[in-house]
Every structure is written in C-alpha cells, then in structure tokens.
C-alpha cells in the first residue's frame, strides 16, 4: 500500500553534505583560500560586491568560494547577509572627481587634462590562452611613474563649461531607498540608477547592446570611464568638516549622448550614467546606456525599444529576484498540476463525446469554429 | 509537537529585526482594514530564494510570538521539502514549537493549499504568494493595474473568463482562481486549487498573504465575503474526483494523483496529509 513519502529532512541534510564535498573538490589539491579569491579573482569579487550591494571584498570572496563560483548564488549570499546589517550612518555623496585614479580614459578627446591612463585593463590584450599560467609562471611587478598624476577633472565638466552638455544638479531631494521601500512605478532617475546599480550585468549588457543595434538608439560616446579609489565621508555632529571613514574602489562611466533641445532650449548633449563598486567597467558602460534609454520619456523621445520601457527593464533587472522565481519552478506543484489534469481530462472526454456524436449524425457540426468566432468577438469587445 | 532546544545566535527572534517586523505589522493592519487590497511593503531579502516563500516567511516572522505553535505545509503536506525547510528555519531562528496537527497550530504557513479542517477563531493562515496581482496576466504594467483596481475596472477579467468558456466550454482557470473580496477588490487567492476557494468565504480565522519578490501583502479578515468570479449561466464549481481517497476513504477532499507503476497504474490520495492521517486514526 502507498504511504506518503517521509524523510524530506534527512534527504535535505544529505544533499547539503554532498554539496559541501563537491565544493571542496579533490582532496589532493589544496583548499582554495578566501584571500586567494579576493586577491586573484578580483573582477569576480567586484561583480559580486556590485550586484550584492555590499562593499566588502573579503565577504564577497567568501561568497564566491561558498557558491563554488556560481556568481548569481554568490550575489544572493551577500545580499542575504547585507539585509541583516544595522544602518549606522548615511554617507555624503561620493566625489568621483577627487578619485585616486587607476584608470581613466575618454573616447571623445585625444588628450585631456590629466591624460589618458590605461591602467590594469584587458583591452588590447590578444585573447590567446597563456599556457604559462598552467605552470604558475612568475609575473613581473608593474612599472610605476615617478610623479603622481596631475588632477583629472571630469571630461563632461569641460563640456559643461561651454554649455554643450546638460547640467546635472543635486536638487537636494531625499533619495528613495530601494532597500527599504517597495518600488512605486513610475520611479525617478535616482531610484532607477539604484536599481540598475544592483542589476544583473548580463541583463544590462544585453539591453544596452540592444540600444546600439537600433532598439531605442541613443548615439552614445564614452565621454569618460574612470576606475580608482574614492573617499567615503560621513557628517558628524561634533565636527564641521566631514569625517572620512575609509576609501572604496569604484568604476564610473559617463556617456555623452545625442542632443535634446527645443525652440526655447538650445540643443545640448545629454548624459547616461553608470556607477558600480570595484572594477566593473562593462557593467557601468551597459548601465549608462540603459540609464540614457530610460530617459526617453523625460527627453521627449518615442519609447519604442525594450530598453526604454522602465517598468519592464527595472522589474526584471535583479538577479536575486529573477533566479529565485525561475528556480521556484523546482518546488512541488502537485496541487496546481492535478487541477490542470482534472480539467484537461474533462475537456478531452467532452471533445471525444462531441466527435462521436457528430460522426454518428454525419452532419459534422464543427464546434471549434463556433468557439473561435466567439473568441474573436470577445477580443473585439475588449478592444 | 516539538520544541527545538536552542535558537541561532546572532539573529533576532524570528530572524527579522523588530523595526522591520513592526513595519510589516503596520502593513498587515492596513491590509486587514481594506480586505483584498494589495499593500506595498518594504520587503527584505530573506536567506532563502525569492519565489520560495519569502513573503509568507516575513509575515510569519512578524506575527509569530514565543508561545505560538507553528505548522508549515506545502501542497497540503507537512513533509514536502520546502515545508520541511521553512519549518526548520523557524525552529532555528525562533525556537517556537511546531506541529503537523492543524487544530493545534496558532500560525499555519501554507503554499498552494488551505487545510481541509476549517480554521478556528484566532488561527492565522499565512499564504505564500508568487504573483499577487490577479490582473497581471491581462495587463503586465503595475501602473495600469493599480489604476484598474482604483477604478474598480474589472471587466477585462470577466472577458478573460468568457473567452475560456467560448474556447473550452469551461472556465479554464483551475488554480489561483480570482475572487472578489468584500464586494470590492478582485484578489488573487494565491495558487490554491479552486477547490479551496469556498474555504475563503466567511472563514473564522484570519488569512494573510505575503508576496516577497513583488513586495505586496494583503489580507482576508475573519467573516469576510469572498466570491469566486463566475457567470449566472456558468456558475463557479470545484473539482470532483470519481474515486475516494485510497488511504482514508474521504470523498470531500482534494486528492493528489500518485503514479504507482509505468503501466498506467495510479491512485488518488488526500493532499492534506494531516487530515488524512487523523481520519485513519479515528477509524482505527
């Protein structure tokens, strides 16, 4: 006789034990250390910090190790931890113009004050597998300059001095906090940028790419991309000057896009903006393209491409939400499925009865055609 | 009933911090005051994936007291993997007593079923909800659906049901069957089979619905009118089975189909395992 399946608890425990074994891998190779992930897989660490919305390289590295390198799982681990943290203070806006630059390039001017600084980049590497790394060859130390960089003003500020690009000013409004309050569509640009900053890189890349291929084209130029350390400051009651509590590595991308303008306003370039924790250049470029695409309505453009549909873009950008909901299909759905089975069997029985009746009578009344007609009528009523 | 010995250190009782619980309870009060209305709330990330019951868990965490007895079911059963996992979570972070007996529970968290035994006064039934918006598959935009609710513009829902009848001769919605709560809001009862819809009407317990990913919660308070949408000539009806439960012989419960071999053999048994077992014990 059938007995309802028991033992889920034991099965889950055993599954997790097996998983831990798989994560550890063959015991004859040394266990991966978190410091190795942090030090040697830093682009992975950057991505997990950015999408996990938590700047903590060590914990991001731990999450990557614990997730066996599954980035979406690692982002989730970090996000779930982040949620439990108390909110001690709010930082002042970061001053990216004062960044300690590691890399800084502009595609719009050949030379710029402060110069083009390539920094540590995969750009211009020939993508040939380096078999020497199979044998862990020695790597020479980087060349360093004798003098510190001269100051690197923002390229877009140079355009601004001429009035060629739209101004961006802090309106002093308290930003909406997407981690505390539910999204309330339509949302303003600051909220959109928050959602994009933690959005899945692959998703934003595809959407940004779609704008380049004509689905909501916005004629971008990479005005400036910069990577480096910025100081994080908070205001404290006892001190007039803000207090620096440390520095973090961030990537920033400012796109220059084609002009808006009207009879009243002179034409100006418009902006798309991308910002992320760590070294996250592809993400910030994609984010800047999507940010600009989402400004279609504000700038009086026809929103025709998918990347311009704010609710569509933003509601599906979060990998933690998306991965969770897709993976929930693995959960039991016996009850819903049984409900569908019951209906489908009934419909098929009725269909068979109708077919038998019509072949008996020989008249061949086709009820399907009647049904289709009614549906069409219903759709017309709806329209 | 079992009580776990120690709760996880480093976390607040029932995982969420007290301010978050308070925010959610405020949302719940609003939800109870406006039956069937979806209240946005600042949903938090839970240490389980979205879509796996994070909304229900946040509600349970917010209403759970130290002396409450918790029951968790998924597909009607206490021993399905995700029910086991959620129950273990609350044993770990809240240390509350748990039970599989519907009558003994103060709070029941459920996915996809309402227990066969009617709720009693004071009992809380917390539903896990994937898509709280009943109009979502007709109108994907949240801006639009909120407006439709505000204006009580529910004609499209009836058109959808009518299209089903035109195409199939029946309303082809078998679970998550839309209801109208207290004559005002069209509401998604979560993906329970329509078999369970009548249990929503004038129930004695309080029913709370939580959608974590979508950050919405709503409620059906005790003794509230809940009508399943239908037509005069196509009245709402629930699923029926030809055979009784093979374990307890019940004829009035929702049955799961179990495949017993690869030659078309199958049997039907109660999806509510506690109800089924208690009937077997009564007979014995």
Describe the structure in your own words.
Chain A has 383 residues and is α+β, with helices and mostly antiparallel strands. Helices cover 41% and strands 13% of the residues of chain A. Chain A is built from 13 helices and 4 strands. In chain A, a hairpin with a 7-residue loop joins β3 and β4. The longest helix of chain A has 28 residues, at 334-361. Chain B contains 6 helices and 13 strands. Chain B has an 8-stranded mixed beta sheet with strand order 1-4-3-5-6-9-10-2. In chain B, α1 (18-33) packs across α2 (54-63). Classes of the chains: A alpha+beta (383), B alpha/beta (284). Chains A and B meet through α1, α5, α10, α11 and α12 of A and α3, α5 and β12 of B.
Please give the structural blueprint:
The complex is a heterodimer of chains A (383) and B (284).
Chain A: H1 8-24, H2 34-40, H3 42-52, H4 57-66, H5 71-82, E1 100-105, H6 155-161, H7 189-197, H8 201-212, E2 221-234, E3 243-260, E4 268-277, H9 281-293, H10 310-315, H11 319-327, H12 334-361, H13 367-382
Antiparallel strand pairs in A: 1-2, 2-3, 3-4
Helix pairs in contact in A: 2-3, 2-4, 3-4, 3-5, 4-5, 7-9, 8-9
Chain B: E1 2-3, H1 18-33, E2 39-40, H2 54-63, E3 69-74, H3 81-93, E4 97-98, E5 107-111, E6 124-128, H4 142-150, H5 155-168, E7 179-181, E8 185-187, E9 206-211, E10 216-220, E11 226-228, E12 255-259, E13 266-270, H6 273-283
Parallel strand pairs in B: 3-4, 3-5, 5-6, 6-9
Antiparallel strand pairs in B: 1-4, 2-10, 7-8, 7-11, 9-10, 12-13
Helix pairs in contact in B: 1-2
Function (chain B): Catalyzes the breakage of the C-P bond in alpha-D-ribose 1-methylphosphonate 5-phosphate (PRPn) forming alpha-D-ribose.
Organism (chain B): Halomonas marinisediminis
Protein name (chain B): Alpha-D-ribose 1-methylphosphonate 5-phosphate C-P lyase
């Amino acid at each position: 006789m059938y007995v309802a399946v028991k033992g889920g608890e034991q099965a889950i425990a055993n599954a997790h034990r097996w998983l831990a074994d798989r994560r550890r891998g063959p015991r004859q190779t040394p266990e991966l250390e978190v410091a190795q992930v942090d030090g040697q897989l830093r682009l992975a660490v950057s991505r997990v910090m950015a999408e996990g919305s938590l700047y903590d390289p060590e914990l991001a590295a731990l999450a990557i190790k614990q997730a066996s390198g599954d980035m979406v799982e690692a982002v989730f681990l970090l996000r779930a931890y982040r949620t439990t943290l108390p909110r001690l203070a709010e930082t002042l806006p970061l001053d990216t113009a004062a960044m300690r630059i590691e890399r800084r390039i502009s595609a719009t001017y050949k030379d710029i004050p402060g110069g083009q600084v390539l920094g540590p980049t995969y750009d211009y590497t020939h993508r040939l597998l380096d078999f020497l790394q199979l044998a862990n060859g020695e790597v020479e130390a980087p060349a360093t300059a004798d003098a510190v960089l001269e100051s690197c003003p923002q390229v877009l500020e140079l355009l601004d001095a001429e009035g060629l690009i739209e101004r961006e000013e802090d309106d002093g409004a308290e930003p909406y906090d997407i981690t505390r309050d539910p999204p309330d569509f339509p949302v303003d640009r600051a909220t959109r940028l928050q959602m994009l900053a933690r959005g899945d890189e692959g998703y934003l890349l595809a959407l940004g790419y779609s704008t380049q291929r004509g689905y909501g084209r916005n004629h971008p130029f990479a005005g400036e991309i910069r990577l480096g350390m910025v100081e994080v400051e908070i205001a404290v009651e006892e001190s007039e000057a803000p207090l620096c509590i440390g520095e973090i590595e961030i990537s920033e991308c400012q796109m220059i896009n084609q002009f808006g303008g009207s009879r009243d306003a002179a034409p100006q370039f418009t902006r798309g903006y991308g910002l992320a924790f760590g070294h996250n250049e592809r993400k910030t470029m994609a984010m800047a393209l999507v940010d600009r695409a989402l400004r279609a309505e504000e700038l009086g453009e026809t929103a025709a491409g998918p990347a311009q549909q704010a609710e569509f873009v933003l509601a599906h950008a979060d990998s933690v939400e998306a991965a969770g909901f897709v993976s929930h299909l693995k959960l039991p759905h016996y009850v819903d499925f049984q409900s569908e089975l019951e209906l489908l069997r009934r419909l098929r029985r009725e269909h068979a009865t109708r077919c038998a009746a019509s072949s008996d009578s020989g008249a061949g009344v086709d009820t399907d055609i009647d049904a289709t007609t009614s549906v069409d009528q219903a759709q017309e009523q709806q329209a | 009933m079992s009580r776990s010995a120690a709760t996880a250190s480093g976390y607040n009782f029932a995982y969420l911090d007290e301010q978050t619980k308070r925010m959610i309870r405020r949302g719940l009060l609003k939800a109870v005051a406006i039956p069937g209305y979806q209240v946005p709330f600042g949903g938090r990330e839970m240490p389980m994936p979205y879509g796996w019951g994070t909304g229900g868990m946040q509600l349970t965490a917010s209403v759970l007291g130290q002396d409450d007895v918790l029951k968790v079911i998924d597909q009607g059963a206490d021993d399905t993997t995700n029910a086991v996992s959620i129950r273990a979570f609350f044993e770990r972070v809240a240390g509350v007593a748990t039970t599989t007996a519907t009558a003994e529970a103060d709070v029941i968290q459920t996915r996809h079923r309402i227990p066969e035994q009617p709720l009693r006064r004071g009992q809380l039934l917390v539903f896990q909800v994937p898509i709280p918006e009943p109009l979502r598959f007709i109108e994907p935009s949240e801006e639009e659906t909120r407006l439709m609710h505000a204006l009580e513009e529910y004609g499209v829902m009836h058109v959808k049901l009518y299209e089903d009848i035109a195409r199939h001769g029946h309303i082809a919605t078998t679970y998550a069957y839309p209801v109208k709560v207290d004559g005002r809001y069209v509401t998604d009862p979560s993906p329970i089979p329509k078999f369970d819809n009548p249990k929503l009407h004038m129930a004695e317990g309080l029913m709370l619905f939580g959608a974590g990913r979508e950050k919405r919660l709503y409620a059906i308070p005790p003794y509230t009118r809940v009508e399943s949408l239908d037509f005069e000539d196509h009245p709402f009806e629930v699923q029926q089975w030809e055979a009784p439960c093979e374990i307890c012989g019940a004829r009035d419960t929702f049955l799961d189909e179990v495949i017993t071999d690869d030659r078309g053999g199958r049997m039907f048994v109660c999806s509510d395992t506690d109800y089924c077992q208690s009937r077997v014990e009564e007979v014995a």
